From TrEMBL:
PROSITE patterns: TLDC
Organism field: Piprites chloris
Family annotation (InterPro entries): TLDc_dom
Gene Ontology biological process terms, A to Z: response to oxidative stress
Official protein name in the record: TLDC2 protein
Length: 155
């Protein structure tokens, strides 16, 4: 988290973050992740480690939740540590920030490609270049298996 500090919106840099959800502690379930998320207006940080030990994730300006459409703001971004931190910010081309239902969580989109997606049992995910963030593929493979996932929110 400290490495991401400079990239967060200024109002959040001095805020205390706490772990809201972790696959190690809470099991692998997108439903449980939604239930443990913070208040709707509260930002969220999603940290993922895949089975090849690559770390990456997303910052969302709003809590991660079930939704019928996309939500979030241009503060949302994707990032990867490969091996140094790379941050992929909003391009302004569309507003496909975050969208989730019980089977799929998506961050970033456009032309049917998602910057980051996770399936309902949180075992599999994928990453593609997308118009929202013009990101690189966050993991070494376009589809990956999740080893650990954490959701951080403001205390």
């Amino acid at each position: 988290l400290p490495q991401l500090g400079p990239h967060l919106p200024p109002r959040l840099t001095q805020q205390p973050w706490h772990l809201q959800y972790s696959t190690r502690r809470d099991g692998f379930s997108l439903r449980t992740l939604y239930r443990s998320g913070g208040q709707p207006g509260s930002p969220a940080l999603l940290l993922i480690k895949d089975t090849e030990a690559q770390a990456f994730g997303a910052f969302s300006s709003s809590a991660i939740r079930c939704s019928s459409g996309f939500y979030g703001t241009g503060e949302t971004f994707l990032f990867s540590f490969s091996p140094e931190l790379k941050v992929f910010r909003w391009t302004g081309k569309n507003n496909f920030f975050v969208k989730g239902d019980v089977n799929l969580l998506m961050v970033g989109g456009g032309s049917g490609r998602f910057g980051l997606w996770l399936d309902g049992d949180l075992h599999h995910g994928g990453s593609h270049r997308c118009e929202t963030f013009d990101n690189e593929t966050l993991s070494p493979r376009e589809e990956f298996c999740i080893q650990d996932l954490e959701l951080w929110g403001l205390a």
